[in-house]
Amino acid sequence: MEPSVTVRSIFAFLCTTTIAFTTSEETSIHRRSLPSTADGTQMAQYFFYQRSEYPKDCRDVQSQCSTSNSSGVYIIKPDGFEEPFEVYCNNDVGGGGWTVIQRRDSGAVNFNRSWSHYKDGFGFLSTEFWLGNGKLSYLTNQADYELRVDIELSNGVSFFTTYRGFRIADEWGQYKATYIGAYEIHPPGTVIPTCPTNTIYGTCSCKATCDDPNGQSGCHRDCLGSEGCTCPDGFLMQGSDCINASECRCFVAEANLVIPNGETFVNDDCTRNCSCNNNQLTCEDYRCSTNAVCDVRDGVRKCYCNEGYEGDGETCTSNVFTDCQDVYDAGHRQDGVYTIMPTGWPSSPFNVNCKMENGGGWTVFQRRTDDSVDFYRNWDAYKNGFGNDRNLWLGNEKLYYLTNQRNYKLRFDITTSSGSAKYAEYPEFQIESESSKYRMNKLGSRSSGDTGYYLYYSRGKQFSTYEQDNDACGHFNCAEKHRSGWWHVNYSYYCKSCYSSSSYCYRFQYNGNCHSYCTDDNLNGDYNGGNGENIFSYYYYYYCNVRSVEMKIRPSS
Question: What number of H helices and E strands is found in the chain?
Fold first, then answer.
């Protein structure tokens, strides 16, 4: 097959591969004839390569293709370039034959690119693109080209500029524009808008200044939506010019912003507070109270006191009672339900029953009056609390915070099955946190009363429930046998002994006729349970099947 036939076949295919669309702004180059000398010969300013089988620019496409009257995508290969590539040819302006090297019309393509991107080109020929400096260097050095820049403003005004020469160097020469000829603006007399230093031409918006960085005072209805010179991001108006925001006196570097006069700024973790007064910036250390949180509310970041506290966030004081003693000291003398919030309590305030007899200020954390509430509960139930006004367990977590905010004493009152009233008081009472299994840390010897003599054996013991056995009695689960959450005791010999008699209510049967026990006081047992399961308190006499019981605390000093 002859080479000319091959060329014609390939070229015919290339000229039918087009994509037509409209454009709003683009930059293109057009090859023109070299200037001639006085004797009519062309000036030898450029070197030429042997003509390839591909057109070397859109002017070649226009002159050789039968379909070249249509604007669209064609394949060209400039002299010396290794591989052919696609370009967009614009044949709708200036006689056609324009090789488009750049187009921007929507902002769909990011032009903030690296050197390699601008070298190789990027974008899409059908929308926005940069052809590539490598290709452009070969294009502009194979003939004499003129440059055309078509511009359409946002208000619809359009114009174009032509330059009678355009050439750039190769990569070794940093793609320097080695020649740009004289220019003409079309239509003639078109005035290109210019803006002062650091300003850009665009849609006018609120004019922000150092005194008013949010632009509220410079916001005018006539300005909005119109075109004019405005400041780019990071700059503020000063007179008719724009200055960098960092030059403003109330500029906060860590936040890269200017604080309006009379306002403050708090950093992300509420450790720094800056204020602007008379255009003077003052910054100082800032810390939230332990009863406050760093937060953003209604657009303002600062320290905010937790619920139940009031103050400026750096200092927060409780606006609720910390216990029933606070209620009593505030003049409340009636038994009832009051809202308290112990020191350090991480959640919202909660309700407690307060008793005001026997000196007043008693915070009730346990009460049994009937069998309507089951006390055979799991760990979480005893941790968070359960019940109602007649039968309740306040909750070990609340009890921990209560007994660790000051020194407390313990009192419990019982009514025996025969109707006798008994009580006991202990000068100290404190439990540890959940990580220590709510261990009864303090109790002290019984100071008064006629029951609860052996409760002190529970001092130092961890709390147990039927699924969390912390009693250290390896022979059986005391919480399960006594059917109660409690500070059960590991009696070294009682846990392992076998008693033939089962007549005592504090004993339970665990194997055949063998009976044993873990505690002398079980105030959370089954209300009407069998042996070893019911409510009892041992002291000289066996107070079994207790009719009612109430446990409460108050400050000891």
Answer: 8, 40
